[in-house]
Amino acid sequence: RHCTDIICCVIFIVVILGYIALGIVAWVHGDPRKVIYPTDSYGQFCGQKDTLNENKTILFYFNILKCASPIVLINLQCPTTQLCVSKCPDRFATYIDVQASYRYKPEQWNYFRQFCKPGFNNPRKSVAQVLRDEDCPSMIIPSRPFLKRCFPDFSTKNGVLTVANQTTFKDGRGKTRNVTDLREAANGINNVLDARSVGMRIFEDYAISWYWILIGLFIAMVVSLLFLVLLRFTAGVLFWIFIFGVIGIIGYGIWHCYWEYDHLKGIPGSDLTVYDIGFQTDFRVYLQLRQTWLAFMIILCVVEVIIILMLIFLRNRIRIAIALLKEGSRAIGYIMSTLFYPIVTFILIAICISYWAVTAVFLATSGEPVYKVMANQTLCKYANLTCDPETFNKTNVTKLCPGAQCTFAFYGGESLYHKYIFIFQLANAFVFLWLVNFAIALGQCTLAGAFASYYWASRKPADIPLWPLFSSFGRAIRYHTGSLAFGALILAVVQLIRVILEYLDHKLKGTQNSFTRFLLCCLKCCFWCLEKFLKFINRNAYIMIAIYGKNFCTSAKEAFFLLMRNVVRVAVLDKVTDFLLFLGKILVAGGVGVLAFFFFTRRIPLFAQEAPTLNYYWVPLLTVIIGSYLVAHGFFSVYAMCVDTLFLCFCEDLERNDGSTAKPYFMSASLHRILGKKELSPKKA
Predict the structure, then answer these.
(1) How far apart (Å, rounded) are the C-alpha atoms in residues 681 and 662?
(2) Which end of the chain is more exposed for a tag (fewer CB within 10 A), N or C?
(3) Where's it found, cell-wise (predicted)?
(4) pTM attached to this predicted model
(5) In terms of DSSP H, where are the helices of 381-467?
(6) Where are the domains of the chain?
(7) Cα 284–chain centre separation
């Protein structure tokens, strides 16, 4: 053994160090609180612990009617003062009415002033000055919290939109407004929230339900292990049950089609052809025609004949495939530690995903608070210009634009770092894909080395090394890190291109250019096929690397030509293995997904109180389903890798040996019998 693909190994290590540096820079500049907590006009977070706003978790808009302004979409911020409050208003009130009655109804003033600026308690100040300086809102309306913001409490009464059973309200400036104006304002905010806070809501759901997601993934891990153990004893039985089940179902379909065909005989109109009735939107019409059932019956007969002929002519190869599956089960039985190696792969991938997600969040929240001039006068030339809240009162802006304020607008920045945030996000995604593919490659090469040591052992299990899995892992890390990184790099480049194509397709969905859509569709299809082909080549290349210790390109070439010389066996083995593992993945992902659905929708009485309150219950649900599928895929990859490794060893065994005393076969007795050999020649001790 010697080190392979050293240059790629060096590049890989340098990239990892750069990735760590990127994460450190992102953590220094980023602040995830920006997507967890709403931010008031002073740039302070609502509900943040150990601050004055700790118990004020909801954002309140002074004049929500201003949120219907087009400026909302331009600046992504509603041009009115926003404060953190502990609860939303539950009644209609105007500042004019409250000020006029504060002497003999102080409780109204005490209630109203909790929605004024902190520390303001001067009801004697003139209404004009209060509204100009925005010390208090001109009105409050019954609201309820939604996405941690106060929104009008809309309801419909006899088909009419109302707020607290009222269709009109006073705006505190001498006008009576319709509640439909509030709807327009709320829609204005919703448009901004849709643009800014979908990620925030998803992040909140993950923050609340992450430990339940981990529990779901742990359950998926346990179920996957149990399925692998059972598969050792049921591989052949499951396959033949499925084959004869398919033949039986298709046979029933043929009989049912014939029964329908014969049953419609003599019924008026049933002898018409599909051409006679033309296209019908109600497809049940076609089921009333004898011709339809005759066509179904012919198609099913053809499929049935094809399956039976395949079983007849490929019976020997199917027997070899099943024997290899059983041999794989036997190999796993001798090297039981391989069943637990997917935990290592799972931990490595979990670390990669966690690091990528955290870095992405910190990169997305790397902006500094940006403040802009908010002026009541539309003619103020300083409106929407950036400002500094610490020095704003010393400028002449307040003199030229009475009532103007320097309020928080959004998070951003003009530094070189902030300008290249998108490039950093792209680099974050690329290195993430590279690391994930490397973790998978390391697992495949490690398992292949362990199972190859089983196959090439002359006397099983006596000649199997003491710690085959750990020995194989050590060889892969010590000698072949560069080769594994090379294969992972090629795959990561293709996957990144696919991600970019999907992004472009999403952005250009509304375009009317049919050529562009056609070109994107072709590119997506080509790169999907390329990714599948590369995964197949990489997998077998890693097996050859584990067996012979050659570099990536040489191993990939030898594996490819070896498989091409046994292409029919490859096809049969792949389909038999894919079917069994597909059943397992559906069982694990579907079972855990159903359990997660009932849990997160509070349909399990025993755990109804434990289920977290979520914005979207499908966020943790999809995460659990996809995560369970990936966990099952990781565990079942042990079985698939075992079979693939044994198959390549089997093909090499057939080409290099002839069963003689000088060149004995290393295959098992069952495989030897299927090949039609009389007796297994004794192997060298």
Answers:
(1) 9
(2) C
(3) Cell membrane
(4) 0.66
(5) 397-400, 416-419, 421-455
(6) 58-174, 368-412
(7) 39
